[in-house]
Amino acid sequence: MNYEFLIAGFGGQGILFSGKLLSYVGMLMDKHITWLPSYGPEMRGGTANCSVIISEDPVGSPIVSHPQILVAMNLPSLDKFEEDIKKGGMLFIDSTLIERKTARGDISAYYIPSTKLAHDNGTPTLANMIMLGYVAKITGVCSFEDLKAGVSKVVPARKVDMIEVNTKALEIGFNYTE
C-alpha cells in the first residue's frame, strides 16, 4: 500500500483540511504519512494544494512531484498538475467547477459534481469533504469508518458542531455513483 496524493484548488475550498484529514486517517491506520501544504499569499481565493503520502514503508520525502492521485477542485489546478499524474494514475475532477475533460488516455478520470452536491445537501462549504469521501471509496485508501474516526479527531474542539456535518458530507461522497 502506497498512495501519493496531490489535492489542489483555491484557498477557502478546504484543500489543506482535506489533506490534513487524509493524513490523520493514515496515522490512525498505523501507516507512515506525510502532509505538505502549499498556498499562495492571497490565502482565500489564491492557490492552495497539499501533498499527502500514505505508505506501508517509511517515506523519504514529503514532496509529490508526480502524484498517483490528483484531486482538482478548480480549472487552474487541473491545468497546472494534470500532466504530472503518473501513468496509470487517477484524476478526480469537481465537474461543477471544471467543464473540460482530461485529454490523457493513460489515467483513470472521475468527474464528481462535488460543489453542486454540497449546495444541494445544505453544506455549501463542504465540497472538499464530499470529494474526499468519493476519493476514499474509489482509491480504497481507507474505509468510511476510518474517515469518520479521523474527522472526529481533526475538527477542532471549538468547532465540535462541525463533526456531524463533515461526516454527512463524507458520506454523500462515499455513496456517490456516477
Characterize the structure shown.
This protein has helices spanning 15-28, 75-81, 114-120, 127-139, 144-154, 162-175, and strands at residues 2-10, 32-39, 47-55, 69-72, 90-94, 108-112. By secondary structure, the protein is of the alpha/beta class. It has a single domain, classed as Pyruvate-ferredoxin oxidoreductase, PFOR, domain III (Pyruvate-ferredoxin Oxidoreductase, domain 3, 3-Layer(aba) Sandwich). It is globular, with a radius of gyration of 15 Å. It has a six-stranded mixed beta sheet with strand order 2-3-1-4-5-6, sandwiched between helices. Helix 5 (144-154) packs antiparallel against helix 6 (162-175). It contains six helices and six strands.
List keywords for this structure.
single chain; 178 residues; alpha/beta; Pyruvate-ferredoxin Oxidoreductase, domain 3; six-stranded mixed beta sheet; 6 helices; 37% helix; globular
CATH hierarchy, class: Alpha Beta
Shape estimate: globular
Stretches where pLDDT falls below 50 for ≥5 residues?
none
Report strand %: 15-25%
- CATH 2nd-level architecture: 3-Layer(aba) Sandwich
Backbone CA Rg: 15 Å
Instruction: Tell me the number of structural domains.
Output: 1
* CATH fold-level label: Pyruvate-ferredoxin Oxidoreductase, domain 3
**What is the count of β-strands?**
6
Report the biggest beta sheet as strand number plus sense, adding barrel if it closes.
6 strands, mixed
Task: State the helix count.
Answer: 6
Structural class: alpha/beta
Secondary-structure element pattern, one letter each: EHEEEHEEHHHH
The fourth-level CATH homologous superfamily is: Pyruvate-ferredoxin oxidoreductase, PFOR, domain III
Helix content: 25-40%
Widest sheet, order of strands = 2-3-1-4-5-6
Distance between the termini: 26 Å
By oligomeric state, this entry counts as single chain
Please tell me the overall pLDDT: 94
